[in-house]
Amino acid sequence: MTNKLYFMEPSETLEQLKQYYFPPYITLAHMFHAPNGWRLLPRSLKQYQLQYVVEGIADYHINGHDYVTKRGDLMFHRPNEPHYITTRPNEPYVCLSVVFHFGDSGFPVQQVVQVSNESASHYMGNYQNHTIEQKLTELVHHYRMPEVIDHFQCQSLLTQILLQMSKRKKELAVSSSKKEVANKAKLILIRNYISNRLQDGFTHQDLEKLTGWSRNYMITQFRTAFGMSPVQYLVWIRLEKAKELALQSGQSFGEIANQVGYTNIHAFGKIFKRKTGMSLSQFCATLFKDTPDK
C-alpha cells in the first residue's frame, strides 16, 4: 500500500503530486516608461508573459498576429512565441510586464486563461479600473521589496490575477453567447417586419425603435447575417413578390407595381430591369414561352 503523503519527506512526495501544480516563479515584474520612438525588437521568451498597458498606445505583434493595444489592455503570450512592440510617434506608452514560469511542471496555464496552445487570441481583455489593474500594480511594487513576505505576496497576487482572468473570460463567453442569441432574434424580427411592410416600406427610425440599435450597427449586423442591407432586402422581396404575382395573378404591370409598394410604374420598371437584367414583360415572356416540339 502506498504510504500516506503526509508521512513522507517533502522530496518524496513530488512524484506523487504530479497532478498538482505549484505557485508561479516570477522572474520579472516592472513598470516601463517607453521613450519617444522606442520599439522592442523581435524576440522569444522561454517563459509566460503578461503585458498591461498603463497609459498610451502601441502595436503589439505576437506570433504573426497584430494587436493595437491601449490603456487597460492586457496581453498574454506563451513560451517561445515570437513577439515585438512598436510605439507610435509622439504617443506615450507605459506598461507593466510580468514574466513567470512554473518550473519543470507542465502547468496547463492555457486552461486557466481560457485559450488553447493553437489560439491566436493573446488579448485577455480591457481591465481599466478593474481589480486586476490594482493587483498588477501591487505585484510590481512588492517585487521590488526584499522581504520574503513580499515575494510570497507576489506569488499570491499573480495567482489571483490568473484566476480572475479565467473567471472574467468565462463570464464574457457566456455574455457573448447570450448576446449572439439575442442579436439573431432581433435580426429575424427586422426581417419579418420588413417582409410585412411590402407596400408601405419602412424608415431606419422604425427599425431603431424596433431593436434599440443604432442605425449603423443595425445595418452592419443585418448585412452580415443576410448579405444585404435592410433597404436592399426590401427591394429584393418586392421584386420576388412581383415575379410571383406576374406568374400567378394575371394582374397588370401597374397593379403589380402598386401591390409591391411602387406607385410609379416607370420607376418600378427601371428597378426591376436593373436588378434582374430584363423587364417584367420579358420575364413573363420567358415564363410562358411555348416549348418547341421534339
From TrEMBL:
Look up keyword Transcription regulation and say if it applies: yes
In terms of domain of life, where is this protein from?
Bacteria
Which is an annotated Pfam family here? AraC_binding
Q: Which Gene3D superfamilies match?
A: Homeodomain-like (1.10.10.60), Jelly Rolls (2.60.120.10)
Question: What are the record keywords, sorted?
Answer: DNA-binding, Transcription, Transcription regulation
List residues of the HTH araC/xylS-type domain.
Answer: 188-286
Record-linked InterPro entries: AraC-bd, Homeodomain-like_sf, HTH-like, HTH_AraC, HTH_AraC-typ_CS, RmlC-like_jellyroll
User: What PANTHER family is this protein classified in?
Assistant: ARAC-FAMILY TRANSCRIPTIONAL REGULATOR, HTH-TYPE TRANSCRIPTIONAL REGULATOR EXSA
Query: Mind telling me what this protein is named?
Result: AraC-like DNA-binding protein
**The organism of origin for this protein:** Paenibacillus aceris
